[in-house]
Each structure stands twice: as structure tokens, then as C-alpha cells.
Amino acid sequence: MTRERKINAGLALALLAFPLWAYFANEPFMITLATKVAILALAGVGLNIALGQGGLVSLGHAAFFGIGGYAMGILASHAQTFDPIAEWPFLIEGTKSMPIIWIVAVLTSGLAALLIGALSLRTSGVYFIMITLAFGQMFYYFAISWPTYGGEDGLSIYVRNGFPGLNTLDPIQFFAITFVILMLAMGFAAMLAKSPFGLALNAARQSPQRVETVGMTPYRLRLVAFVISGMITGLAGALFADLNRFVSPTMFSWQTSGEIMVFIIIGGIGRLYGPLVGAALFIALEHILGGLSDYWHIYLGVLLLLIVLFARGGVIGSLAGRGHAHD
Amino acid sequence: MTDAVLATKGISKSFGALQASLDISIDLRPGEIHALIGPNGAGKSTLIQQIAGGMKPDAGQIFLNGQDITALGTAARAKRGLARTFQISALAMEDTVLQNAVLGALGAQGRPFQVFGTALGKADLRATAEQALDRVGLMDHAKTRTSELSHGQRRQLEVAVALTLNPKAFVMDEPMAGLGTRGSKRLTGFLDSLREQAPILLVEHDMDAVFTLADRISVLVYGQIIATGTVDDIRANADVRRAYLGDDT
Amino acid sequence: MTLLNVTNIAAFYGATQALFDVSLRIDAGQVLALMGRNGMGKSTTVKTICKMIPVSRGQITFHGQDLQKVPSYKAARLGLGLVPEGRRCFPNLTVEENLIAAARPGHWDFAQVSALFPRLEERRTQGAASLSGGEQQMLSIGRALMTNPKLLILDEATEGLAPLVRQEIWDAIATLKHKTGLSILVVDKSLKELSQIADTAMILERGATAWSGAMGDLTDDITNQYLGV
Amino acid sequence: EPVKVGIITTLSGGGAGLGIDVRDGFMLAVKQSGNTDIEVVIEDDQRKPDIAVQLADKMIQSEKVDVMTGIIWSNLAMAVIPSAVAQDKIYLSPNAGPSALAGRGCHPNYFNVAWQNDNLHEAAGAYTNSAGFQNTFILAPNYPAGQDALTGFKRQYQGELAGEIFTKLGQTDYAAEIAQIRASGADSVFFFLPGGMGISFLKQYADSGVDLPVVGPAFSFDQGILQAVGQAAIGVKNTSQWNKDIDNPTNAAFVETFQAEYGRLPSLYASQGFDTANLLLSAMAKADISDRNAFRAALKEADFHSTRGDFEFGNNNHPVQNIYVREVIKEGDVYTNKIIGVALENHVDAYAADCQM
Amino acid sequence: MSFILFAEQVLNGLQFGVMLFLMSAGLTLVFGVMGLINLAHGSLFMIGAFAAAAVAGLTGSFVLALMAALAAAAAAGALVEVLVIRRLYDRDHLDQVLATFALILIFSEGTRWIFGSFPLFLNIPDYLSGPVTLPGGIQYPLYRLTLIGIGLAVAVGLFLLISRTRLGIQIRAGESDREMIAALGVDISKLYTIVFALGAALAGLAGALVGAIQSVQVGMGEPVLILAFVVIVIGGIGSIKGALIGSILVGLTDTLGGLFMPALFALFMDNSSAATAGSALASMLIYILMAVVLIVKPSGLFGARA
Ligand SMILES: Nc1ncnc2c1ncn2[C@@H]1O[C@H](COP(=O)(O)OP(=O)(O)OP(=O)(O)O)[C@@H](O)[C@H]1O
Ligand SMILES: Nc1ncnc2c1ncn2[C@@H]1O[C@H](COP(=O)(O)OP(=O)(O)OP(=O)(O)O)[C@@H](O)[C@H]1O
Ligand SMILES: [Mg+2]
Ligand SMILES: [Mg+2]
């Protein structure tokens, strides 16, 4: 249909083609990079539901990313040491099964999003940005100083968790898992945007009064969106931890929240494929610029600045023209 | 009072030293259009806000169909059948006209948390929405982005969204504002036809429209109702002429 | 001498056109009354002159200078003193601060404004937000005078005020005209007072000039046609 | 056969100075050796564990390196080393020595050329005893390395504790802690506050009027940061396995050539990088990298001239070495250290016994 | 706990708060007047510290160093405003966040490029070093007392500037109605540049003052920036009074929390784990404070708008 659709299809193909090329060219690290792009894009897809559709500028999504990561770290480390997580009121054992870890990651981050959202959504605008930041920082400091699971050192898992029927240590197979999840999440996000709930949520962003006068409560719509958003970002956190076989409090830091947000802005706020483009571009820049100079952050900064100042609507916005997205 | 669809009893509201509403009691009876007029800053929009639930009165009560709704929020009042339009259009500007109308239908249906299926694909929602658009004559623009509508068309859309709620009472804040003479005439005719469905509390500066439509007029000055009566009563009222209409009217 | 010359301007709000080919002229020392019913484009005209909204066509010159090329603060410094619709006093500032914020050197200073509106002197330290409507109106006029303008623009300066307060304002405007010879562009609905004070008049109808001429030439027919109910 | 070495270290952002020193020390030794069979790839981890892990993946998967080294921080080490050595890469640690890798988690492919994390703290504890302090006040940041530091100190220290405080990681204002020290009636202070934290603490401590003697590990008093601490550091005793005045020809030559090459005095970290490279070069001279067993054995022999004098590995591939007490002095315009004694002789770390290798 | 220790800690909290105020004042001013979120404010703090260290290194004069800090930060602020920030006023907060985030990267790495990766040296001048004895036998560093003095003096000065001078009046007017103040002949963009440079200068001053007792290094601004945001959000965005009270509240909470939390936990835990748990909670304390304030008052203590 639209130009954006064509671009999107191209992007999905590119994300699939790149690791396949790397596989045949025997460049496993390139597959790892593509996997990282897919996972970070997934985190972005999560945040974009709150940010792009709900207009909720959360600078605390690292909290969910980190919770997902620690869900993996804690479960897997207990499985590694055969040391149950809890024996009372009932026995909870660690696990090395990805599907179970994902479920736990999604549920715990959803629960955290429910709590954080319920409190934060009482505020709006910059206050919302800052209170979500505050919650993120609480998790960060907690994770750093809580010694049971490694504190600032984090937790290392020596072998990647398993998925029935697949060898997850093989880069291309792990990529396949993340790719499928990313596509499912994007499909879900696309469906959400068009669903009755999405319609109401988008309207609540544009005109909360309007939504109220037709009998719906923006607060509740936003809270549900925030929880869904947190769950997806949490899932991305679990995958990210599995990619690195390692979790640390850095996942909770405000820079992590900032980076996820940067992906979205680079790609284009509210654009379905925005997070993917943003994450891919960011990682590519990091990879290419990092090789050029010790001071590559300067170039990154200048590039970001140019994107904000001159490519309004992000990369997809610039390519596809003004479509269905807000400034 | 008992047969009033919508009524306020002794509403008062102040902003610091400013008394925006003072002991206001007005009512809206079945089938009527009750116009509320008064100078700028008299407190008309403030009163509408309190009736619709956007603002809590300091004192007094509001009744819809005899039930006290003072404690309810905006959304709850809307669910009970109170539909309002805004002085400054409040619409989802990035969405299409149809989407705005479907939003109204969705609110009326009361199940906003459906994540499966598309909003525009739900036959029941769509039927309600299209019917409302049809009534205000916006069906041709169903696929237009709302931000591309003219001022007048936005006012029509506001009314259409209110219609999707199938309300018991309308509260309209300056629906004619910004419409040309022709637009006002059309909307006047339309509002006239609307009163059979539900009565309208109408705030309006357009005296042509008010004098054509209103069954009763209340005049609000400095937060107080200084007169209520028929068109002729009000035109003849010396206080009203002094405070609002002036000598030329 | 022509002070303000507006020729064939058009202006838009988004996609809706609000002004169509409006032209007007004010000479030094003159008072022009700009009239028309609600929503006809009076305030829009005023806003284009003060550079608050852009014109899409036409030309505005003030004192021989093309206003098109200057930002709004420079236009103001050339000598445009605006009393905007809705007063727009700075609510978080006191009366005195509102006046100081605008002050530029010249005849009008705090003492002169106080002499014109003794009420403002009494309310000197009160926050503008809590002033009565009439007091706010006086403050808004005083504030515009503090910029020592060559042309004072009054948009609905008597709107929504009690008759008594209105009278005070009209008296003040008359003083300005007769004692200081200030040029004034006045937008208002009360014909009676306008006819006493204005030299020329102009009526807007849906964003276009419907009538213009000397105030004395304004007949009842015309006012009934364009201003009556 | 040529050996490919991957250096992952911190070259940008906070803490970059340490990584730069390790890298420069390492490259100096490679250059001096004239050995063309060694190929080095260097990457910047930005002190972020996830970046480090990725770079490790890249080095192993793409660059196909044989030997890895360079990591400064324990948390990054824990993220990278276990999986690298499991993939049969040799890892030579030039700085971090987390306890988890010294005891039960030791590995034949992992060699630490610097110290086990606790060592310098243990030495500080031992020195505190020998200096006759009875009631010391100890503080460290609240993170694992900080907790290890206090544990290490207490392992050797025999007196009373006047107080024990964990500060915030990255904290820059220590007024509150100094006030507690003042009120505690301590006779000395031990602290472990690496990087900017230590600078801040010392400057504020010197200005507070509390004049209790201070003891710490070398990290807060090393060449790279002493100039920033300035006068406040003069006279402080600190523990280190290396100093530029250790008297052996290798060290003298190292100090001189480093200064000539880079225009600054070498730091502790530079010496560790230098030793790491020389260890590697000595093994390359004896064995082929494709024969892992022989190569590991060659490494274990540690037959090279260390800047510390003789160098020897214990059973867990961690150094068995002297740890000295140094004092901060001023030489001309430059703040530096001088050795004033030995705190622990031929010290074996506390975890070696747990290592089954 | 002795009275002396407690009093000293209160002074420490006050001093910390006052320094935070210097950072937050500019931030809240820029936000309140221009509606701009400036993440790069921390970089201006760093620039002040580096400028001071560089000039102190060259001239040996602390006073000159402070002047250099003010000048360098103000100049950097003005430059950034004219080149970048100006284009962001009409953008939404997200664009501002991203653009100023990019500025952090440029400033931090640029500084590292110029000054290298090692911390710089900036010392307390002799005439301000060492402790003084206050009434009640409290020993307190003279320099920190001076900081409290300077901070409070700046607070008073800033308050007078904003509330009494014509410039301050115009700034406040711009806060409520930008279009109107322009229509009265005030050059609003110049005014904005001045406000931005003023905020930058205060941050630079804070950087230099703090640099003398801490380490002057790349990235020193970011932790303070986050705290400054916490402060202005607690105080209510745009309010100088809110920034002062918020700063002192945060300063005291942080300092006294670090003191009392471990002591509190020690009541029911052994010393070592109490120290760990207590300091863990202490480091979260200001964020908890902020969350509580916002939950109770969603627009901060003295905030007018949300
Ligand atoms: N939230 C508020 N805080 C303080 N004052 C307010 C607030 N809302 C409205 N006011 C004041 O209350 C008065 C009544 O305002 P309102 O909007 O109800 O007038 P109105 O009759 O609708 O006027 P108009 O015809 O111009 O729309 C005005 O003086 C207005 O400034
Ligand atoms: N900000 C705006 N956005 C869109 N349309 C506007 C805006 N302001 C005014 N209009 C429209 O422009 C037209 C002219 O408005 P203007 O304010 O100039 O009228 P006016 O003659 O001053 O009326 P009044 O006597 O009510 O003040 C009106 O139709 C109005 O609805
Ligand atoms: Mg109104
Ligand atoms: Mg008008």
C-alpha cells in the first residue's frame, strides 16, 4: 500500500538477509550483532507502545529491561548451582529453559510496570519523565548494592539457556528465535494500534478530554498500555541477558533507558519499524565509528544532533514522508 | 424540577478571589433548548465544565435524570448519557473523521480494552459511527484526517461524536463559534432537529442562533444568573440589555 | 503623514483563511475604529500588524518601514503599542512589574500612567492575576503606554466590563487622543463611544473589508447591515 | 606460528586512564621484543559489561584470536573470562582478579599476571598491624570489589574496628563519612576508593583537619591520579606489588623506556600490561600456540623478566609475590611513590587452596 | 550519636544542598522560562571545573580560576544556545532530550580529547584550607563553610535578580506569555540566550567550587545532573524557591540517610550486613523521596504547572 509499508518489508528482509549472509560468509560475529539489533529493537517496540501510541515518555524502561534480564540471571544461576530459589511456601527451582524464563520475565516486568505505572501516571509531562527515571534509578541502586546476585559485578551464566529442539549456542539459531519473537511483537504492536484499545489509547494521547467525554478513563488506558509495554521490554531484557550470558545492573541504568528511547527517536516515533531502524543504525554506528577513533562518541553525538535537527520524524519519517505519526 | 433531565442546584465555584459560579441553579427539561448567554469571562464555560465533570464545584449538586452525579468523574457522567462539545475543538486530530466517531461508539459500548480485531472492522461500532456522521453530513469526509477539516466541519464532528453516545442530554459550548453565516444557519437547523432526541444546554454568543433556537434563556453575569426566561422576556429585560445585549439589540 | 499602511493582506489559521485582501491606513494623530461582528477578523487584523501571525500576501508598512522583514519585538520597538484582546497581563507579575517589563524611555513612565489610572497606583504591589477585569484592562493599556508607542492598538478594551468601568476607559482614551495626539487603532463593539472618538472607520465582514470611510459617513443603514443583530 | 592477541580494555569514558596504561605497557613490550609473530587487536569496552561480552564474542568468532587480555574491571572480567576460557582461549588478566576465578572457579586457561583482588587489601591489613594501629576505621564503596576489599583487609588485620562504612559507588562527597571518622575515636583509616572517588576522599580528608594516618591499596595513589590528588596524598602509606623504584634492570629499563615513549611516568597498570606481554612472549618462545598443553605449561613457568623481579605462579595461576608498602612523596614537581618496606612476603592468595586444578 | 556529629552532618547536608542548588537553579530557570529539558547542563558543570583547573594550573590563582569557570561555562552556554538549543524550543521534549543527550557525548569526549583521560588537579587555596572551630566545638572545614556562604549568597542574588531587576521581571513575563512580551518590544531570543548563559555560568561555578574538593574528570557532571533533576522536580519546575528548598531537602536526606539508615538496620542485623543493606537503602532514598513527593503533589512542592 503505502511507501512506509514497502520500506518496512524491505527492513524485515534486510534483518533476515544480513545474518544469513554472515552465516554463509562464516562471520558469526555479524550474526551476533544482528541478534543484538533484533533484541534491542524488541525493547524499543515495547517502549514504543507507551511512547508512540500512548504518548508516555518513560525514562525508566530500563527497569523492565533489567527485571527481564535478572529473571533470566536468577533462574539460570539457581539452575546452575542446583540451589532452589525458595523452599517455602513451596519449592521453586531454577531453570534453564528459555520459554519458562520468558514467562517469568514477562510476568515480573508486567507486575513492576503495573506498580510503577499506577503511581507514575498520576503525573504528566516532564514530571512523568522524571518519576519514571526515579523508579529506574531505585532499581539500579538496589541491584548494585544487593549482594546476593552479584551486586555491581552482575551474574554470569556460562552456558546459554535452552530452547526445546534448538541449539541456542549456535548464533544463527539463537538469531532465529529473537527474529521470530521480534516479528511477533511487531505484529502485536501493529494489531494493537488498529484495535479498539489502540484507537482509544491513541486518542487519549491526542486529546484526553475527548476520551473522557465519551466515557473512557485515560488513566486506565495508559496503565494497560504501560504494562503491555513493560512486558515486552522485559522479554527483550531476558533475551539480551541470554545473548550476553550475563546480567548486570547496567541494564537498569538511565543510560539504558535513554538508549532505548534514542532508537525510537532515530527510527521515528510511533513508527512500527522505527525501533528496528534506530537499533540497527545505532549498533552499526557503534561498530563502525568505534573502529575509527578513540573519540568516536563525538561523531556519534554530532550524528545524533544532525538527525534531531534535520531529519524530523526520524529516519523512517524522512524516507516515507509524514504518515501516521505525531511530532 | 422533577421532570428536569439535567439540573444543577446551588453550584458555586471560585478561583481564589474570583467567583466564577455563585449559587447557580438551572435545569434542562425534556425536548427543550436552554441557552446560556453572558459576557466573556462570566463563567459559562466554567459552569459547563462542572456539569460535564471536568471540574469539581465548591458547593452544590448536579442531577442527571434525578440522580445525583456530583461525585462522578467525566467518564462516568458520559456513560450515564451526558454528551458535551467543547468551546475549543477537542478531537483526535491525527485520526480520521471516522475513527473519531468510532471512538465515541467505543466509549458508548463500554469495552475499551479489546486488543484483538481492528476498531474499524467492528461492525457494531462502525454502524453507530457512520450513522452519526451521516446525520451531521460528514459521511463524505469519513476518511479525511481530522486536522484537515475546516473549523466548521470540526464543530460538526464534535456533534457527531456526541451523537454516537446516544445521550440523554447535550451540553454544548459555543458550537457556532467560528462558523460562517451559512454554517451557523445549517447548524441551527440541525440543532433544532436534535432537541427531539435529547434536550440541549447551549452556550452561545451568536444571538441569531440563540433567539431562533432557545425555548428558554438564562443570562449569566459575574458568575450569577441574573435572569431566566423566554426569548421575549430576555430581550425586554433591562438588566440583560445593560449587562450583555446592549441597546442596539 | 501616513503612519500605518496595510495593503491587501491575507492571513490563515492553518488551512482556514481568516483575512481576505484587507487594507487600511492610519495617519499621524488619527483614530481609526475597526468594527465588525464576532469572528469577522478584527483581532486577526490586529495580530498581523503586531507580527503575532504571519501574512501570506500583501504588505504592512509602519513609519515607512516594511514590517514584513522584522520580528515582532522590532515591530513593537518601532512604535506599536498593543492592548490585546483578553488583556493578557502577566499574571505572575505585580502591577508595577507588568509596567516595568514593558517600559521604554519617553513621556510615559510609571508616574504618568499612575496619573492616568490612579487605581493602578493604589494596586501597585498586587498580583495581576487577582485584579478585577477593569483593573486588568487599565493595566494592559498602561503597559502598552509604557512602551511609548506612536500607535496605540486597542483590541476590545472595554469588553466584558461593567458600564461604569467602561466609561472610565473611554474617558482615558479620549484623554490620550486629545491631550497627547496619539494615533490609535481601536477595535470595539460600542458604536456610540466609537463615533465620538474616531476620525475614520472600517467594517470587516467575514475577513474582508465591507465598508470604510470617515466616521461621520457611517450611516444607520450601514451599521444595521453589518453590525446589527 | 603467529599468535593473535585480543585486548579488550577501557579506552573511553570514566576509567579510560587505566586501560590506556595497560595497553601502552603491553604494546611497549611487544615493540621492544621485535617479535613479528604476534598480532594484536585492541577494542574499547567503554567499561560496560555488555559491550565487553560482545567484543569478546567478536574476537573469538570473527577475529579468531588465541589469547585474550586487557580487562581492567572485575565485573567485566566475570562477564567475559569464564566463557572465553571455556571456549579454549587463553586469558591473561593484566589487572582484575576476582575471587570467583581464583578458588573453585580457577581454570587452566586463565592466568592472572597482576594479583588476586584481595591481595593489596590483605597487605594493607598486615601493614596496619605492623605499624601498631589498634583501632582502625575502614570504608569502601558498596559493590562486590568494595566488599571484598574490606573482607581482605580484615583477614589480616588484628585490631579493633572503629567503624565500617560502605559508601555509594561513584560517590564524590565524603564529608559525612569524614565526620563519622572524626567522631569514631579511630587511630587510623583504611580505605579502598578507586579512581575519582579516592581523589575526592583524600582532598576532603586533608582539608577536614582529621589527621589520622591513612592506609590504602595502591589504586588511589598511583601515578595516573596522584597529580590530581596533589599535596593531600603526601605521606600516605599504600600497598602495591610494584613501584618504579624496585631495583632490577628490567624495571629500570621499563621506567625509562616507557617515559621516553609516552612522555609520562608509568603506573602500576602500565607495569602489569608490560609484564603480561612479556609473559606471553616468553611462552611463545617455548611452545607453539596450537599445542595448548605445551603453551599453558610454558606460561605457567613464567620464565620472563618481570618488572617486579622474580615472578612465579601459584597452583591457581595467580602470582605468588611480595607486596610492598609505599609512601607518597614529591620528587621535584611530581608526586610519586617510594617503597618503604614489605607488607607480605611471597604471599599466596586466600583462595588458592580451593582451586582443584 | 553525639550532638557534634549530628550538627556536622547537618552542615554537610546543607553544603551539599547548596551546591545542588547552583546546578538546579539554571536547570529550573531554563525549563521554566523556555520549556526546555537540557540534559547537557551537567556538561556545563564539567566545563566550569575543567576551565578552573586549567586556569589554576596556569596562574595559581583560585579567584581567577573561578572567574574562568564562570566565563567559560557562560560562553559555552551562549554558544550552544545560539547554535543548537534555539532550534529546539518549539520541539517536543523528546527531541530536546535526544539533542541534549547528543551534546553530552560531544562535550564529554571533546573534553577528554583536549585534557586527556586522567583526572585534573584543582586545589583549595591555602587561605581557605583547613578546619575552623564553630560554636559548640564543631570542627568544620573552612572551605565548605565558604561554599555554604557562596551558595546562599548566589541564592539571594539570584532571587533578587529574578524578583527585583527589570531583566528578572522580563524573564518571568516571558515565562507566562512569550508572545506578549515580544509584542511589547522585548527581544525574547536575546533574553533566552542570557538566561541560558546565566544558568550555564551557575553550573560552571558549581563545577569549579566542587572540583576543588573532588576530582575534576570527564563525566563528573552526569551524576549531579540527575540529582539536579530530582531537585527541580521535587521543588516544582520553574521555581527558584522550589529549587532551593528541594536542594536542601535532597542534600539533607542524602547525607543524613547515609548516616541513619545503617544505624537503623543495625538494630536488627549484624553490623556488616546492616552497613550493606542500610547503604543500599540510603542510596535509593532521594529517589524514594522524589516519588513520594510526586505521588502526593504531582507538580512538585512549588510547581505551578504540570
Ligand atoms: N482554572 C482557572 N483558574 C483561575 N481562573 C479561572 C480558571 N478557569 C476560568 N477562570 C476564570 O473564570 C472566569 C470565567 O471563565 P469562563 O471560561 O467560565 O468564562 P465564559 O463565560 O465561558 O467566557 P467566554 O464567553 O469568553 O468563553 C474567567 O475570568 C476566567 O479567567
Ligand atoms: N487561533 C485560531 N485558530 C483558528 N481559527 C481562529 C483562531 N483565532 C481566530 N480564529 C478564527 O478566525 C476568525 C476571525 O477571528 P477574529 O478573532 O479575528 O475575530 P474578531 O473579529 O476579533 O471577533 P471577536 O469580536 O469575537 O473578537 C474567526 O472565525 C475565528 O474563529
Ligand atoms: Mg467560554
Ligand atoms: Mg476579537
From TrEMBL, chain A:
Q: Where in the cell is it found?
A: Cell membrane
List, alphabetically, the InterPro entries matched.
Answer: ABC_transp_permease, LivM-like
UniProt keyword terms in alphabetical order: Cell membrane, Membrane, Transmembrane, Transmembrane helix
Q: Where are the transmembrane segments?
A: 7-24, 30-50, 62-80, 100-119, 126-144, 172-193, 219-240, 260-285, 297-320
Membrane topology note:
Multi-pass membrane protein
Where primarily located? membrane
Q: Would the keyword Transmembrane be found if you checked this record's keyword annotation? A: yes
Judging by the UniProt lineage, the source's domain of life is: Bacteria
Q: Does the keyword Transmembrane helix apply?
A: yes
- Its name, as the record gives it, is Branched-chain amino acid ABC transporter permease
Organism this protein belongs to: Parasulfitobacter algicola
UniProtKB/TrEMBL annotation, chain B:
Q: Which SUPFAM superfamilies match?
A: P-loop containing nucleoside triphosphate hydrolases
Q: What GO MF annotations does this protein's record show? A: ATP binding
Q: Which residues form the ABC transporter domain?
A: 6-247
- What are the UniProt keywords, alphabetically? ATP-binding, Nucleotide-binding, Transport
Q: Which domain of life is it from?
A: Bacteria
Signal sequence, start to end: none
Protein name, as recorded: ABC transporter ATP-binding protein
From TrEMBL, chain C:
| Any GO molecular function | ATP binding
Q: Does the keyword Signal apply?
A: no
Q: Does the keyword Secreted apply?
A: no
Q: Which UniProt keywords apply?
A: Amino-acid transport, ATP-binding, Nucleotide-binding, Transport
Domain ABC transporter, by residue range, is 4-229
- Cited Pfam families: ABC_tran (PF00005)
Q: Which family would the database say this protein is a member of?
A: Belongs to the ABC transporter superfamily.
Task: Please state what the protein is called.
Answer: ABC transporter ATP-binding protein
Automatic annotation (TrEMBL), chain E:
The entry's localization annotation reads:
Cell membrane
Keywords for this protein:
Amino-acid transport, Cell membrane, Membrane, Transmembrane, Transmembrane helix, Transport
Entry keyword RNA-binding: no
Q: Which residues form the signal peptide?
A: none
Protein family: Belongs to the binding-protein-dependent transport system permease family. LivHM subfamily.
Record-annotated membrane-spanning stretches = 12-32, 39-58, 64-85, 97-122, 142-162, 191-213, 219-237, 244-268, 274-296
Q: How is it placed in the membrane, per its record?
A: Multi-pass membrane protein
Task: Identify the InterPro entries for this entry.
Answer: ABC_transp_permease, BCAA_transport_permease
User: Which protein is depicted?
Assistant: Branched-chain amino acid ABC transporter permease
Entry-linked Pfam families: BPD_transp_2
Organism name: Parasulfitobacter algicola
